[in-house]
Hints:
It is built from ten helices and twelve strands. By secondary structure, the chain is of the alpha+beta class. Strands 1, 4, 6, 7, 8, 9, 11 and 12 form an eight-stranded antiparallel β-sheet that branches. The longest helix has about 100 residues, at about 180-275. The chain starts with about 30 loop residues before the first helix and ends with a helix.
Amino acid sequence: MRKVFTFLLSICMSLCIFPFQPVLAEDPPYTDTDYWNKLCSNYRDLDEDQISACEAYLKASSSTLNDQLEALKAKEDDIKANIADYGLKIQNYQQEIDAKQTEINATVNSIAAMQKEIDNKQIEIDNKQIEIENKQKEIDATQAEIDAANEKIKTRMEISQSSMRLNKYTDILMGADSFEEFLRISNGLSAIAQYDQKILEDMKELRAKLNQQREEMEAVKAEMEAAKEEMEEQQAAMEYEKMILESQQNEIIVKQTEVEQVRKAAMEEEARIRSQSDQVAGNIAELNSMMVKLAQAGKLDDVTITTNGWTYPVPGAYVSAGTWSYDGAGYYPHLGMDFAAGVGTTVVAIGNGVVLHSVNGCPTYGYLGNWCGSAQGGAAGGGNQVFELTVVNGSLYAVSYYHMMLGSPVAAGTVLSAGDYVGQVGSAGNSTGPHCHVEIMYLGDGSDFSYYAQHWNGDFSFGCGWQGYDRKCDAGYGAPCRIRPETVFGY
């Protein structure tokens, strides 16, 4: 049997045996991870020396995980200073993570298949054990028959030896009174002799049967030992696959840690930049003048017919991130609710209102650290965005819709009814995937709608602040304050 587990003892390998493997030197640096991953990907194709080298590589990879994570923490300041560059890098990381996840899924499937083979082999071994036990019962029964025959022969021999000088059969024949009695006794003795002969023949058959049964049982035992050996090799292969899986998972942990670190830095930087540039870059007077004209034309009058209830902003979307943080523990600040859907999915007004400001001109696909939006006259990192003033259930709210598709946002001054088209889902600005980020600010009584529309000062946070979520309604603040969209749209 090939003892697979001996590869655990084969850490030191000879360069002369594998001169094409530069990594076989003692304590190699394992810098060529592509080479090692390719070499170690299939256990069944490796010899024992290669298995030993791969095991050392996998152990080394696992042992360096904490060092890598600590190094990432030390890079935080550098990441903040170069978020845009890291943001582009993260896109490639995500592709690598997706590819690595595919490898992990394949490894998990391989392990599951191996476990199934092992389970089947165990069933085979259990059946062989039952077969051996049944064979043993047959052997015991045959041996009992042989023992009984031996006892009969032994008894006959003891009787036969009662007269040592004269054959007892001759004595019996000589004691006949007539020829007829002689023939009768002779026939009887012949029958006794035939009986003795039959016992001997039965004994011979029983011994042959016993030998055959023993041979059959030894064959079954050999089959069972072969099955056990095969199962041991399958178990060794599965343990190796588990090491591969752990190594793959560690690679993802490192990349995901850096991804999350960049995401955190990007969100913090976004809040900082927004807090410094939360005024419309364009002419506020022109926007106010536009609203005055709408009011004079009676366009804003219908909006005061309050919307009863909230309209879901992205039909068919799912919530990919909530408020106030991405992780639920406050480490990754997040001022709103993310509605994830495919690019081009329609975004609708959550209530009757008017568009105070609209930003267009950012590419549909952005990345972490992409601050597009501020130079176009909007909030930094928001990409293509719309700010709506709305009345819902008699209260006044400001709603911001971010990261929309290029060319899709409706223009400033557009009067909306609940459910009207606002734009289309994109991934513009500081974003890593298609979604619409929605923020809601409570501003007071709905009767102030027309006045607020005409006197908005261009503050994208509507007095609620950006950095540190300055005013949260659920923290006890009154208007203006931020509300969690989850409280109206559900979780």
